[in-house]
Amino acid sequence: MRRTLKTALAAAWLAIGAPMAQAGPVQDLLQEQGALIEESSRRSIGPAIDAIVESGLPRVQPVLQAWQDKALWIDAGGRFWRVIEKDGAEILVDVDTGAEAGPADTDAMEQIKPNSGIRALIGTALVRFQLSDPDPRRRQAALTSITRDPEPELLAPLRASIETETEADLRARKIRLERLLTMRFGTDEAERIAAIEALSTDTAVEVRAALNPLLATRIVVGPAGETPEGNVARELKPGGEALSISAAYARLVDDGLAPPRPTDAEIRAALEANLVDGRAGGVPLGALGDPAARARAYDALAAQGVVPPRVEERDVETALEAHAFHEVYAEPSEAVTDAARAAITSIGIRVGAMKGLDTGLDALSLASIYFLAAIGLAVTFGVMGVINMAHGEFIMIGAYTAYLVQQVVPDRTLSLIAALPAAFVVTFAAGVAMERLVIRHLYHRPLETLLATFGISIALQQLAKIVFGTQARPLTAPDWLGGAWIVNDVVGISHIRIAIFVLALVFLGFFLFLMKRTRLGLETRCVTQNPGMAASVGIDPGRVNMLTFGLGSGIAGIAGVAIGLYAKVTSEMGADYIVQSFMTVVVGGVGNIWGTLAGAAMIGGLQKGIEVLNPSNTLAAQTWMIVAVIIFIQFRPRGIIALRGRAAGD
Q1: Which among 306, 303, 305, 311 is positioned nearest to 272, based on CA atoms?
Q2: CA nearest 382: which of 573, 606, 555?
Q3: Does the pLDDT of residue 650 top 80, yes or no?
Q4: Across the strands, what pairs with 103?
């Protein structure tokens, strides 16, 4: 690839005193490998890279880095230089001393341009140096490179770099990676077993991926009664779960230990190919429709040596009885496979426990969502006894309110802070209007209330479609709510769901304080238990009912903001939660906030538990959950925590 054209510009460049590279060990080494370096062939460059790395020269790393970055050049005299950019100019750097040697005339030089394959090889070679690089980012990149492409040659430099590592997290990564490489490439059996045992508590996917090859097996066939050499896992019996009779005989055929068994199609084809004067094997063509006649004809052809002999069931049985089948580990050390098997068992138990914990977190998250969606209904239905089928639409109104706030306030954090009170105010006002215009005329008439609120629900959905359209609207969470809390490869939960859980706890505390420590809460309890007596002591039942219904609606609006952060905001989003909200209140115990919390926990846990058993069908999980709730209500109609005394009502 070296240019042979000596341009006038190159001659002028040399004439004005191109800096001369002093002879040095790195320059001499590059000159020795120059032909391979200039050839830049992925197939032949390996020895050159190995020679440079194994030289142990202190200036090898920057040369390899320059080569990988296409910053290695050759001048007209065949000398190697590093070329760097400084203040907008290209500068020559001596490969041995690292000293700047003046401006570079790259027009008179040849650039070494390694392809992607060569750069990958250079990157692997650089890992040895980068493991102890002063820059922590380079050390981290080196560990990532080893993880992606582990090589046995990297084990020794990795071990050497652990003692000098100052960063705690990088040191932990190096120790873990050293164990993985030792387990896979180590030459000392005791060291490999120790590495496997040390990793037996690590549930990472890459650990399990590294352990599984140690337990890889192959089937070895030998004479009956003999055990093959090597690390035998078990003997396989043909006809068992691990080895069918057909698979066992096929293995004998593949190994040349038994003749192939012709299929019916092959027998028919052989007979057709050997028809002579309307006969095959002496059997007339008209009689070949009979299986027994076909067998006689084929056997006659086989006796003549025209076709392979037919293999009958007794022949298969005889062949299988004459041979033994064993599973043999690819790993020759029995102690290593025993340790790997014990480690995988231990990790499997831990992974199962972690999956249970992850399912529990998912159930807790879902329960928080259901609790937020139902807490407003616990006020309007549980406390007031009003069946509000439009409760889901208040959730939808709250979500759309947050969407509109985001259109006005571009900052996601500020828009979220503003959306919560805005959603409460809007849905509170909507709830008050609904109570004043419709609900107050229908108290103690549950059927009419149900029908009226159901009609309002449909009207609100259609109004939302007219205003916002049928497409889902985005409700973007702030950056600090993005991502997830990752415990390990198995357990994790999104920050949004954690925030919803915290919000559910806040509203639990707020509702308890409101009902137990405020005048409105006291008046609400009085009116719901005995409105006549409450009116006789100066409490206005109409005003209390209006504020209580508005409060329940406002809480539903805030729940809509929280739900809209991770779910789609559409006109039908409320319908997705109305059934679960009613079930949460009824299962927990009507009129009891602690019951609502218990009901949300039960329904969320039940749904997630069923989803684990049938992960491919969420709709089926919800169906079975509803069936379970119906059965539960048959045995406990007042819910988990039923009201007692006068508060229980009729």
Answers
A1: 306
A2: 555
A3: no
A4: 91
Alpha carbon distances (Å) from 217 to 327, 331, 336: 6, 8, 14
For residue 10, the Cα-to-chain-centroid distance in whole angstroms is 57
Annotate 81-129 with three-state secondary structure: EEEEEECCEEEEECCCCCCEEEECCHHHCEECCCCHHHHHHHHHHHHHH
Question: Given a cut of 50, is residue 17 above it in pLDDT?
Answer: no
Cβ neighbors of 376 (< 8 A, separation 6 or more) are: 391, 394, 551, 552, 553, 554, 555, 556, 559
**Average of per-residue pLDDT values in the chain:** 83
- Beta bridge partners of residue 569, listed in sequence order: 473
Nearest Cα residue to 450 out of 393, 397, 396, 391: 391
What CA–CA distances, in Å, run from 177 to 173, 182, 263?
Answer: 6, 8, 52
| Tens-digit pLDDT profile for residues 254-287 | 888 888 888 888 888 888 888 887 888 788 877 8
Question: Beta strands 80-86 and 492-494: pairing type?
Answer: unpaired
Are 454 and 438 within 8 A, CB to CB?
A: no
For residue range 527-561, list pLDDT tens digits in order. 777 777 878 888 888 888 888 888 888 988 988 89
Structure tokens that stand for 446 in this block:
């549950």
Q: 36-95, pLDDT tens digit by residue?
A: 888 788 888 888 888 887 887 878 888 888 888 888 888 888 888 888 888 888 888 888
Report how far residue 627's alpha carbon sits from residue 580's, in angstroms, rounded to the nearest whole number: 13
pLDDT digits (tens, 9 = 90+) for 130-147: 888 788 888 888 888 888
Q: Is 220 left (phi over 0), alpha (psi -120 to 50) or beta?
A: beta
| Segment holding 279, helix H or strand E | strand 279-280
Using 50, 70 and 90 to split pLDDT, how confident is the model at 105? Answer: confident
Structure tokens belonging to residue 441: 């005329």
User: Beta-carbon neighbour count of residue 521 at 10 Å?
Assistant: 18
Residue 617 has a pLDDT of 63
CA pair distance 257, 236, nearest whole angstrom: 17
Q: Tell me which residue of 606, 614, 613, 597 sits closest to 630, measured CA to CA.
A: 606
- pTM of structure: 0.66
Asked if 218 and 361 count as a contact pair (C-beta separation under 8 A), the reply is no
The contacts of residue 184 (CB under 8 Å, 6+ apart) are 150, 210, 213
| Two structure tokens written together for 505 | 């706890």
Whole-number pLDDT of residue 194: 93
* Residue that is written with structure tokens 């109104």 in the block: 397
Answer positive or negative: Cα dihedral of 97, 102, 103, 106: negative
Sequential DSSP letters for 210-253 = HHGGGG-EEEEEEETT-PPSS-EEEEE-TTSSSS-HHHHHHHHH
Quote the tokens at residue 602: 């039960």
Place of tokens 């069931």: 313
Under DSSP, the state recorded for 258 is S
Can you count the helices (H) and strands (E) in the chain? Answer: 26, 12
- The kind and range of the H/E element at 74 are strand 72-74
Tokens of 80: 């190697």
Which pLDDT belongs to residue 615?
64
Q: Is the dihedral of CA 132, 135, 138, 139 positive or negative?
A: positive
Please tell me whether residue 349 adopts helix, strand or coil conformation. helix
pLDDT of the residue at 503: 86
Which helix (H) or strand (E) segment holds residue 296: the answer is helix 291-303
List helix spans (H) across 469-574.
495-517, 519-529, 531-536, 541-564
